[in-house]
Each structure stands twice: as structure tokens, then as C-alpha cells.
């Protein structure tokens, strides 16, 4: 393709909301063999909402939710925001929150209602921990509790598995060394996700899902969207390794992601595609920005590359 053709294609991309950073990226997209999708915020809407809360201890539901929200209040994670919103609505309205009310609480209101959490730390790929009323409080996945020696009773484990096979993320809570309850969080698929996965398969591209979430939830979501190749329980630093392992045989790999923890993978991929609504770090690391947050533009980008670089026969 001539430089003019590349310039024209870049312009066409831009008018469709596909920002392309350079002719090399434009050229590579035509040869893509694998598209690796991040799950949360990429295949899913990134609008996590709590659907279930169950206490497995001698504690009122309201007190349980306040405790969990207090631990999560300092976390930036989308799961944390869903938990705080849910607890807030339960606390102030005594009922479940409607999505449109989410995230409207001011810092002042929060500080009056929440318990003081000290010694807070986020554990990447695991959850959060802090001290509340002097007691160690853990909110996160199985690994977080296991690493802290907390035993999850069989009844709770069964409850958790039931959430996960239904594509929900189960969050476990421990207080003072004892397991006290579970939250179930749902994050619906983007409307176009399944159609795009099918469209990729039709043009001979293999879709893969990569996530830090647990295996059961990941597989349930993958099944819904039509992806067979799933890589779950991948630590934030591990996503780039997944890319490199697929590239090993010389395959051309695209990565689509939105999060801070996707940026090394976006950089490692032959074609990094960031969701426009994603974090700045992801957008910076990517070769493409999908401004409309619509996964159909993954196919738009491939098509544009093919049309621009089509061999003259
Ligand atoms: P993803 O690939 O979905 O962005 P992350 O690496 O951010 O995954 O998180 C992996 C898992 O760690 C989550 O599915 C959740 O179980 C747990 N986790 C991470 N952060 C939190 C948090 N703030 N509160 C509760 N659980 C968390
Ligand atoms: Mg994500």
C-alpha cells in the first residue's frame, strides 16, 4: 500500500471511531490469527452489580455489608465500587440499589457511615485486606482467604460454586480469622460480544479469553459468548505471558483490553487494542483505540487492514 492509502485508511478508521497509531499496526491487523479478550470491562459491560449477599455467621446482613464496604471503600477496583454501592443502598434505604443510583454517595456521607479501616492494602488479583476494630478483615477470592489460613465451610463453598457456574463472581469475606459470608457479583456481557466472537471464527481468527477471575465463572462467561479457549486465574502480571506463549509459534496475536492490568499484554501483543472507555494506561499501551467501546470495531479494524493491504492480483 502507498503512504497515501495508509493515510486514507487511518482517516476512514478515525471516522468510524477506530484510532490507529501508525501504519505498522494497520498493516499487521490483516494477518491476525488470535484475538485475546480480557473479560471484565472488555467482553462484559464493566458494570458490576451485587446480586447476592449471604452471611454465614452470627451477624445482621446490614452489619455484614457495612463491614465489607468499609474494607472496600479505599479500593479502585470495579468490584469494590459495586460492593460499596450495594451496601450504601441497603444502609440508607433498607433495600437493594437500582443501578441509576449507583456511585452518588459523597465522601462525607461515606465517612459517617463506614467503619474506620486502617492498614489497608489491595492485593493484586486477590482482593483487599485491612484492620477494622483492630481485627484483620479480608475481602476477595479463595486464594486470599487460603493464603491467610481461613477455612471456608462446605456449605459456603457449595453456595459459591452455585454462583460461579451461573457466571457470577463470588467474593468471600473473613473477619478476625473466621469466614463470615459471601457476595455474588454479576457483570453482563456486552450486547455485541457473541456476534463478534462468531464473526471472528468465520474469518478464521481464534478467539481466546483471559481473566483474573476464577475458572468456573470464566468458563460460564466464555460459554455464553462462544469462546472455547479460556485462560483464567491469571495474575495481573501474567496476561503478557499468555500473549507471548501464543506468539511462540510465530502466530500473529491481537489483545483487546481496558484495564491497567491489561497494559503489559497490550504492549506485548502484535496488535494491542484498547477499549476507549478503558484506563489511560491501557490506551497508551495500545496500537488501536476503539473509541465507541464497541467490540464490532475489532472486526472493522481487521477489515480495514485487509482492504488497505489487499494484494493486487
Ligand atoms: P480481571 O482480569 O477480571 O480484571 P483482577 O486481576 O482485577 O481480574 O482480579 C482477579 C480477582 O481478584 C477478581 O475476580 C476478584 O475475585 C479478586 N479481587 C480483585 N480485587 C478485588 C477487590 N477489590 N475486592 C474483592 N475481590 C477482588
Ligand atoms: Mg478489564
From TrEMBL:
GO terms for cellular component: membrane. Its main location: membrane. Signal peptide: none annotated. It is found in: Membrane. GO terms for molecular function: ATP binding; ATP hydrolysis activity; ATPase-coupled monoatomic cation transmembrane transporter activity; copper ion binding. Keywords: ATP-binding, Copper, Ion transport, Membrane, Metal-binding, Nucleotide-binding, Repeat, Translocase, Transmembrane, Transmembrane helix, Transport. It comes from the Eukaryota. Belongs to the cation transport ATPase (P-type) (TC 3.A.3) family. Type IB subfamily. This is Cation-transporting ATPase HMA5. It comes from Cocos nucifera. The chain holds residues 631 to 943 of 1012 of the full protein.
Amino acid at each position: 500500500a502507498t503512504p497515501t492509502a495508509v493515510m486514507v485508511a487511518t482517516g476512514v478508521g478515525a471516522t468510524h471511531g477506530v484510532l490507529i497509531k501508525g501504519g505498522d499496526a494497520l498493516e499487521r491487523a490483516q494477518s491476525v490469527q488470535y484475538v485475546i479478550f480480557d473479560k471484565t470491562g472488555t467482553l462484559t459491560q464493566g458494570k458490576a452489580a451485587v446480586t447476592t449477599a449471604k452471611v454465614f455467621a452470627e451477624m445482621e446482613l446490614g452489619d455484614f455489608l457495612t463491614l465489607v464496604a468499609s474494607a472496600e471503600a479505599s479500593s479502585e477496583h470495579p468490584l469494590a465500587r459495586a460492593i460499596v454501592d450495594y451496601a450504601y443502598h441497603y444502609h440508607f434505604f433498607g433495600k437493594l440499589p437500582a443501578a441509576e443510583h449507583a456511585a452518588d454517595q459523597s465522601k462525607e456521607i461515606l465517612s459517617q457511615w463506614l467503619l474506620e479501616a486502617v492498614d489497608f492494602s489491595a492485593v493484586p488479583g486477590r482482593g483487599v485486606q485491612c484492620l477494622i476494630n483492630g481485627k484483620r478483615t479480608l475481602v476477595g477470592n479463595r486464594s486470599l482467604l487460603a493464603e491467610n489460613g481461613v477455612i471456608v465451610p462446605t456449605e459456603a463453598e457449595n453456595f459459591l460454586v452455585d454462583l460461579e457456574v451461573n457466571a457470577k463472581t463470588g467474593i468471600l469475606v473473613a473477619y478476625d480469622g473466621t469466614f463470615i459470608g459471601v457476595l455474588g457479583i454479576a457483570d453482563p456481557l456486552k450486547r455485541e460480544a457473541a456476534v463478534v466472537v462468531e464473526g471472528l471464527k468465520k474469518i478464521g481468527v481464534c478467539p481466546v479469553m483471559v481473566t483474573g477471575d476464577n475458572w468456573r465463572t470464566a468458563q460460564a462467561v466464555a460459554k455464553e459468548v462462544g469462546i472455547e479457549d479460556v485462560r483464567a486465574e491469571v495474575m495481573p502480571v501474567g496476561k503478557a505471558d499468555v500473549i507471548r506463549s501464543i506468539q511462540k509459534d510465530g502466530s500473529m496475536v491481537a489483545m483487546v483490553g481496558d484495564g491497567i492490568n491489561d497494559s503489559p499484554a497490550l504492549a506485548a501483543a502484535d496488535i494491542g487494542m484498547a477499549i476507549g472507555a478503558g484506563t489511560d494506561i491501557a490506551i497508551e499501551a495500545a496500537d488501536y483505540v476503539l473509541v465507541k467501546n464497541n467490540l464490532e470495531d475489532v472486526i472493522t479494524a481487521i477489515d480495514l487492514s485487509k482492504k488497505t493491504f489487499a494484494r493486487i492480483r
